[in-house]
């Protein structure tokens, strides 16, 4: 279980740890020990998350932020709904604001990290036309299949909308368990 949590979930990052994914990190070891010993593991994981997770702050690039990965000389950028306009962050009305966010971010990257020679934007959001239209067509054409990086994959958007409610389309597209089968896993006692 320890290896699965480290290698196949984004939890290590979600609790504010670095991209090192070091299995011997003291905070990570505290998490694993607490999880193993908890009488109610789900409740314990949630409370640990709340105690450790960093609150996303302001970004000088609006809804975008980035991390530089020196080992690959690449920029990994991230999207988070920080738009306070009351309109959707990817709506037609906010299209120019998102393009300004990206322009400012990449201008800073070019100035501050001239050694960066690649951009990695791996997100389920590329499935949305409203997101893809933010980028030059040549960027979209450069997309190539990559091996999954489960530690970075927070794939909540397929099932939840931007307000945390159920995404209406998901319940129709996600296959249901056949009748008579219970596919739920029970938390260990």
Unreliable segments (pLDDT under 50, ≥5 consecutive)? 177-189
- Beta-strand level of the residues, as a percent range? 5-15%
Based on CA inertia axes, which overall geometry fits?
A: globular
Biggest sheet features: 3 strands, mixed
Number of strands: 3
Chain-averaged pLDDT:
78
Helix content: 25-40%
What are the secondary-structure elements, in order, as H or E?
Answer: HHHHEEHEHHH
Amino- and carboxy-terminal Cα gap: 16 Å
Rounded to an integer in angstroms, the radius of gyration calculated over CA atoms is 19 Å
Q: If helices are DSSP runs of H or I spanning 4 or more residues, what is the number of helices?
A: 8
Strand order in space, largest sheet: 1-2-3
Q: How would you classify the helix and strand content by structural class?
A: mainly alpha
Number of domains: 2
What is the compact description of this entry?
This protein has 189 residues and is mostly helical.
Topology:
Blueprint: H1 2-8, H2 11-14, H3 26-37, H4 41-52, E1 64-69, E2 74-79, H5 95-112, E3 118-120, H6 129-132, H7 137-141, H8 170-173
Parallel strand pairs: 2-3
Antiparallel strand pairs: 1-2
Structure overview:
The chain has 189 residues and is mostly helical. Helices cover 35% and strands 8% of the residues. It is built from eight helices and three strands; from the N terminus they run ααααββαβααα. It has helices spanning 2-8, 11-14, 26-37, 41-52, 95-112, 129-132, 137-141, 170-173; strands at residues 64-69, 74-79, 118-120. The protein has a three-stranded mixed β-sheet, covered by helices on one side. β2 (74-79), α5 (95-112) and β3 (118-120) form a beta-alpha-beta unit. The model is unreliable at 177-189 (pLDDT under 50).
């Amino acid at each position: 279980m320890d290896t699965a949590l480290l290698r196949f979930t984004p939890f290590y990052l979600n609790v504010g740890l670095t991209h090192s994914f070091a299995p011997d990190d003291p905070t990570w070891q505290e998490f694993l020990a607490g999880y193993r010993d908890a009488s109610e593991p789900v409740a314990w994981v949630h409370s640990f998350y709340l105690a450790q997770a960093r609150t996303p702050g302001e970004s000088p690039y609006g809804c975008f932020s980035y991390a530089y990965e020196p080992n690959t000389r690449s920029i990994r950028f991230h999207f988070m709904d920080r738009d306070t306009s009351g309109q959707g962050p990817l709506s037609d009305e906010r299209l120019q604001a998102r393009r300004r966010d990206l322009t400012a971010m990449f201008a800073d990257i070019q100035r501050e990290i001239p050694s960066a020679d690649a951009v990695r934007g791996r997100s389920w959001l590329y499935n949305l036309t409203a997101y893809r239209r933010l980028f030059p067509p040549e960027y979209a054409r450069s997309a190539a299949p990559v091996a999954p990086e489960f530690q970075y994959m927070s794939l909540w958007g397929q099932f939840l909308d931007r307000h945390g409610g159920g995404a209406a389309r998901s319940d129709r597209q996600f296959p249901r368990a056949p009748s008579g089968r219970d596919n739920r896993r029970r938390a260990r006692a």
